[in-house]
C-alpha cells in the first residue's frame, strides 16, 4: 500500500470512522449492523417488584384507608348505634 493511499485511508477513518470501517470490512459491518438492529428489537426486561416495595405500598394504602373507613363508619352509623358503642 502506497504512502498516499495510507494517508487517505487514515483521513477517512478520522472523518467518518463507521463509513470507513464499512468500506474496509463489508462483512463485519453488515454483521454489526444486523446485531445492533436485532438487539433493538428485543424488549427490555422489567424488574420484579421487591418485597420491601410491596410492603410499603400496602402500608401506605392501609394508612389512607383506615381513617377514611372510620370516618365513613361514623358518618353512616345511626345515633342509637353510636351510643351503644
Description of the molecule:
The chain is mostly helical. The chain has two domains: 39 residues, no CATH class; 34 residues. The protein is 81% helix and 0% strand. The model has no long low-confidence stretch (mean pLDDT 84).
What structural keywords apply?
85 residues; mainly alpha; 2 domains; 81% helix; 0% strand; rod-shaped
Shape: rod-shaped
Radius of gyration, Cα only, in angstroms?
34 Å
Poorly predicted residue ranges:
none
List the total number of helices.
5
* Amount of beta strand: under 5%
Oligomer state equals single chain
First-residue to last-residue Cα separation = 100 Å
Using DSSP, what is the number of strands?
Answer: 0
- Largest sheet features: none
Layout of helices and strands:
Layout lengths: L2 H13 L1 H8 L1 H16 L9 H26 L2 H6 L1
Concise description?
The chain is mainly α and 85 residues long.
